[in-house]
Specification:
Layout lengths: L1 H6 L5 H51 L19 E2 L15 E2 L6 E5 L16 E2 L9 E8 L4 E7 L1
Parallel strand pairs: 1-3
Antiparallel strand pairs: 2-4, 3-5, 5-6
């Protein structure tokens, strides 16, 4: 009788291995999902920053009788490290329409006298973004990149 009681105590090696295998699968799934979640979070933050930036330009334009802001330069804030822009004073520097834009990984390019194309390029297409037709001097676009699983994607957003 004592032999039967001793054999029923504890877990068998098979049971322990099954539990470890299940725990390993759960950890693997978490490690595969975390980079994607972080990338999506960074992209959402970028899009929110761009929307806030364009919203500020729109508000300034509305408050100043249609004049674009007199200055649009910014120090390195860690998020928006550099702006490639024209002179956004009353006499805008871009006297002709912007034909193409090629943003870098860490930049936001603000362009007056430009419109976004009908569709954004496919992920990985780092070539210059050909701008849309018939812009006016008051049109402003923001061109930036977001991360995708394989390569970055250029995004253009109109004001």
């Amino acid at each position: 009788m004592r032999d039967l009681i001793k054999k029923q105590k504890g877990f068998t090696i098979i049971e322990v291995l099954i539990v470890l295998a299940i725990a390993g699968l759960i950890i693997l799934i978490v490690f595969l999902a975390v980079p994607s979640l972080q990338r999506n979070s960074r992209n959402t933050q970028r899009k929110n920053d761009i929307s806030a930036l364009l919203g500020s330009i729109q508000e300034s334009t509305n408050n100043n009788n249609g004049q674009l802001p007199t200055r649009a330069t910014a120090a390195d804030s860690g998020k928006l490290s550099f702006y490639a822009i024209a002179d956004l004073e009353g006499n805008l520097q871009n006297a002709a329409a912007v034909g193409s834009v090629t943003p870098t990984e860490s930049s936001i390019q603000l362009n007056n006298f430009s419109k976004c194309p009908a569709a954004n390029p496919a992920p990985g297409a780092i070539a210059a973004l050909t701008m849309g037709a018939s812009p006016t001097k008051r049109n402003v676009t923001a061109v930036y990149r977001i991360e995708t699983s394989g390569a970055s994607q250029t995004i253009c957003q109109d004001l």
